[in-house]
Every structure is written in structure tokens, then in C-alpha cells.
Amino acid sequence: MSTDYFIGVNELEVDRLRTQHEAWRPETELLWKDAGFVSCRSILDLGCGPGFTSLDLAQVVGPSGEVCAVDKADSYLRSLTERARASGVTNVRVLNADLAQSQSITGPFDGAFCRWFLAFLRDDLDVALQNIRQSLRPGGVFAAMEYLTLRSVTCSPPSEAFDANARAWIEFYAKHGGDVTVGQGLPRRLMSAGFRIRSMRCVGGMADPQHRWWS
Fold first, then answer.
1. 116 closest CA partner among 160, 53, 59, 67
2. Number of folded domains in the chain?
3. Which of 62, 71, 190, 196 is deepest in the core (most CB within 10 A)?
4. Average pLDDT of span 57-82
5. CA 164/CA 126 separation, integer angstroms
6. Which of 70, 72, 75, 78 is nearest to 53 (CA)?
7. pLDDT for 28 beyond 90
8. Residue 148 and residue 182: Cα distance in Å, rounded?
9. Host domain of residue 98
10. pTM attached to this predicted model
């Protein structure tokens, strides 16, 4: 197990990330559409993990484009490289880099994406945002899906087991330098890093019996 990713780098975590990716695919693809990624020729996938979004983004940019998949966990990057090779995907390259270190990524890229990645960077968020901004070409776009707060997550009818799980996640992030309320201060810190915020959307609410979140 690698210490580069505090949740752990193992097959159980890969399975969890695969399920999570499928669960949030509709919202993710809508964000990519709004960001205009289909017009981008080069995109950073930040905190790519085993690369489920990287392979999807490779289809978005097409064979003439490129996705640069960035992570600190070598085993995840190797897994992504092998999966891409097996699928015949040739427009994904991997990069082991730490966004908490200044100028860890060189560009310019047309776009950058992350999903629940900035929540890991509580103490280094401003450095990471500066790195992302500097990696983009003028007019480049950064699209992020991040927690507003996990404290609002609950279950109805009430379930102590569900609420205990949510509390455990919150405490786990905090213990390891993460922040599950990162979205509350993110707009201000993005602007401080030189970004102009074009749009924001809150994804959440209550699931009805027909919604995929119900189960």
C-alpha cells in the first residue's frame, strides 16, 4: 500500500473508485460539456487515481488530443498505463507530480479537471491552485467538482449507521490534512490564484425513489 494517497492504494479502493465514477458520471459529463472540453486539445486530469476519468476524457478530446493524467501514486499510474494499452488508447500520458510543490507541472494546457481532489490539499491549496493556473494557456479552463460540505449528508429515514459513516469520513479527512468543506472558501481562493469564475452549480438535494441515488 502506498502512503501517497491516505485512503490507500489497493484493489478494494480501485473498486470503490470505479463505482463512484459510474455513480457520478452524468454530473461529470455535464460539467465537461459546460467547460467546453470537447474543443480542448490538451487536458490535465488532476489526482487521476486509477484513471477512470482519464480514459473518458481521452474520448472527449479525440485521437488528435491528449490527456495528461497526474497523480502521486505510482501504482495507480501504472494501472492506468496498462489499462490504456489494453484498450488501445494512445492519447493518455501519465505524470507523477505533487501539486503542493511549486511549478510541478509545465504547460500550456487547454483545460484541467479534478473531482474531489482539492479536498486533499487543505494546507497546500493555494500553491496547488497557482500551479494549475500556471499550467493553463491564456483562456484555458479549469473545471472542478468539490465538496461544499459533507456535514449535510444524511439519510431519511434516519440511519445511525449512515450518519456514523459520514462522520467517520469527515474525521478521516481532517486527520490526514484534508478538508470536506473545501468548496466553501474555494471561489475566493480561485480568484486569488488568478482565475475568473464563469459558473458554479450545486449538485445535491434529496433523491426520490426513481433516482439512482435512492439505493
1. 53
2. 1
3. 71
4. 94
5. 31
6. 70
7. yes
8. 6
9. 11-147+182-214
10. 0.88
